[in-house]
Records
---
Amino acid sequence: MPETRTVPAPGGGAPPAVRDGGRWVGHWDPESRSFWEGGGRRTARRNLIWSVVVEHLGFTVWTLWSVVAVELSDRRFSADQLFWLVALPNLVGAVLRVPYTFAPARFGGRNWTVASTLLLLVPAVLLSAAVDDPDTPYWVFLLIAATAGLGGGNFASSMANITHFFPASRQGLALGLNAAGGNIGVSSVQLVLPLITGALGLAAAGLFWVPLILVSALGAFLRMDNLRAARADAGGARRAARDPQTWLVSLLYIGTFGSFIGYATALPLLVSLEFPGTGAASYVFLGALVGSCTRPLGGLLADRFGGARVTAWNFLAMAVAVLGALAALRSHHYPSFLLAFFLLFVTAGLGNGSTYRMIPAIFRARALRDVPGDDPAARRDALARGRRDGSAALGLTSAVGAAGGFLVNRAFGSSVAGTGDSGAALLAFAAFYGVCLALTWFCYLRRSFAVGRVPSLAAADV
């Protein structure tokens, strides 16, 4: 029999949860106000803090190659080859997000966080070994860049885990903060890594992160919890995969998160190619920073006004911003080019938070559609089922969205290789944002439309 002990509540109140051996919490009910105020909030916040720390490190390792590719330009690789090195971690990270989504439910959120953090040692050590040898062939760089995708997978497991800790009314902000903490890792690596490699050499690009990985894994081991209530059933994954809502929101998430991670990883190399010698590459870290900081604001605005409304306005602004970047490119005015991309990052960050907030709202509305209003037990069961299904959909959506980062980089690489600049790619992005805007309005803002037998999703505050 495992040891059983209670998690104490502040002020001597009733304990909100029962924890047995191995940091497994057996009872978790964040929708109960007394449970939440009696100590559940404190436990949720502690897990959120460490989730942010390790996810930040995952994004850092995932996007190392956005800086390393620029440093490798003196090895006579073509622009298209360099964009492949930046794009490949995005593709692998997108694929890994599918199994990573279900790993917390299978192994426990705390247990999987520790394991996935330690896996980051693989790309960090291999990167240093490769760049330290001037004769390393290109195909080896491709393989090692692919291992950086391990960091991209962390996002899905982290978000799928944290969503269980918070009540529905606070999920927008909680998920936004969790994601923003990870997203800022892109900005961190683009700011810090050039300083590290300038002082210590390119081999330090990987080794610098090793002690931080070990400390973060230890912190997660000591301070995080596993929730037995978060053990999703296989049916939730199957229902999410069959649901048209999952794939519709995934397409929108390509436009928001796919744009964020694609632009964040492509911009250092893109600016060095389009505006060589201007020093513009020194400021690109600001794009990922502002995009990361606006993500929780997107979740907060979605909690207030509805995710679909915020998402629709963002796609309109993104289309305008990308056309502004195209105009700046044609006039070869790099300050305007950077400003247009900073606007893209702001709106992509807002859209990340708002789109991601739509997912639990959609599955909550679906779960409650046939529940009588006077049956509290049935309502609790339906909310639990909706949370499990929504958690599965969150992971699948994050995987599809991350694939957008691969597509963005490949679009830039193909455009530069085929036409000499990135103009064709920018035009394609503007057209895609127009499609996403139309879908958001048609499927979520028109009161007369319902997808997948959920009546009036707009009225359900999606």
---
Amino acid sequence: MPTSRSYRDSCGIARALDLIGERWALLVVRELLLVPQRFSELRRALPHVSSNLLADRLRELERNGVIRRGPAQAESPQVYELTERGRRLEPILLALGDWGLDAPEPPQPAALSATSVLIFLRRAARPDPAAPPTTCRLELDGRVWTVHLASGRVQVRPGEPATADVSLRADPRTLSALLADPDGLATACADGSVAVVGDLSALDRLLRAVGDPRPSDR
């Protein structure tokens, strides 16, 4: 059942934790940063949370004004999306992610969602401002994303690009490994862990755009 526990502390930090401090709550917010999602999509992205506990967190976050239920479409179930108040958590989550990069890795097998990898990519990529604009189509866990590099910046958005220089299909962990070691692309193509269509040099530019994920002054 949803919790009503409180720190009973008037500090703003404590009051914030009363709303979003329960286990899994911030990971639900993370998953909604880039795109609204259905319950089944959240469950797949967070495989170590039970359905009942996820439902409790969603009810709490909705009650506290962090998320809302978007309208159901004729062809798909209802989705959950961040409210304006919930979206204001984004810089807090990004800073928390930067802080956590030095923490030990969790015990295996550990989950890694497409949203996590794409947030890392968007945060860490430093494309060459002099390089030609590049549009990549990424297919991760059955969802398509458009990644556009231009003028030293990277944009990530859900959905099909109008045109793409290259298309990559992979699981999130494989993409994460390639961002850490772009030289592994040829091996990944050869062993079938990725499927690439289009300009390999464009994909190489994307992978090599990632540097130190900590914020820079640029």
